[in-house]
Amino acid sequence: MSMADNLRKVAGLTRRGHHRVDLSHPARSPLGSSVVNCVLYRDGVRQPGTETVEEAVHQVRRHGHDFVWLGLHEPTETEFARVADLFDLHPLAVEDAVLAHQRPKLEQYGDVLFAVFKTVTYVEHEQLTSTSEVVDTGEIMVFTGPDFVVTVRHGRHGSLGPLREDLEAEAERLAQGPSVVLHAIADHVVDDYVTVADAVQEDIDAVETEVFSPKAGHTVDAGRIYQLKRELLELKRVVVPLGRPLERLSTQPLRAIDPAIRAYFRDVADHQARVTDQITGFDALIDSILQAHLAQVAVAQNDDARKITAWAAIIAVPTMVCGVYGMNFDHMPELHWRFGYPLVLGVIATACFLLHRGFKRNGWL
């Protein structure tokens, strides 16, 4: 089945029942392709479906005030080739959109702006273990042109269906054009960063409480701390690189961005900067927790070594005395005295008692 046929099926479904086809799971589209949705907007209002995406583009370019929003999920190179030709997308951006695994970035190719956002979601777990997955990441690529928005999503989460519905409820806002969609996606992605960062903080607080609990000692599993640090590093790779693209969107004049929308990107950039600072603080805090745990382990091992040394010293007294009297000499102190045996036992007991008392007083026992 061709790409045009798939898009025709999407358009027909929209025209008849106004149903939205969206992907919130890793499976392919119910239509049997990567197409999620194809909608024509006129003055911010969703229009009845057209027969083909080519017809939608023709209508948009005939009226001059409309735009098309085409959404795809993990398209193949063949599936995306027709879209790339129709919207005249740059081959380098097309390659990035198909292959995925890109850093967050912003690139401009003529009148088309290509943005890559890393999405993230918090993985629920009853208890953090040394193998727990804390964050799951994905990607959203956005092509923004004068009269179109093409979104390409990779990963098991990050569905844009709810976002599309929110935008359609604000027709006046959506009428400002494709740059509004780009801002809404950026804002949606960064809001998820805030949510995930708050959830990760709860995991860090739980580990910190356990490490510094008086009863914890060296029983805390260091693997849990290392796993949390690895997951935090994954979150850091998602959030931090987005700072520069958002700075460009909020400060530099770009042909694909309405100047009236630029101020809204500054708000998104502020939120991203706050999450970046929060994650940096988490990283330092986890390092401190890990160092504190290792210090606790070292102190506990030192206490164990001192106890062993103290008991060895106490046991050495009867060992030495008994060893002396175990030698086969005729002339031993008090050897033939009736009270010699009790006397030696009393000396051993007294010496052991004094040593135990001294070690106890010094905190070795």
From TrEMBL:
Provide the protein's localization: Cell membrane
Looking up Pfam families in the UniProt record yields: CorA
**What is the membrane topology here?**
Multi-pass membrane protein
InterPro entries documented for this protein? CorA_cytoplasmic_dom, CorA_TM1_TM2, MgTranspt_CorA/ZnTranspt_ZntB
Tree of life domain? Bacteria
Q: What does this protein do?
A: Mediates influx of magnesium ions. Alternates between open and closed states. Activated by low cytoplasmic Mg(2+) levels. Inactive when cytoplasmic Mg(2+) levels are high.
Provide the protein name.
Answer: Magnesium transporter CorA
Higher taxonomy? Bacteria, Bacillati, Actinomycetota, Actinomycetes, Kitasatosporales
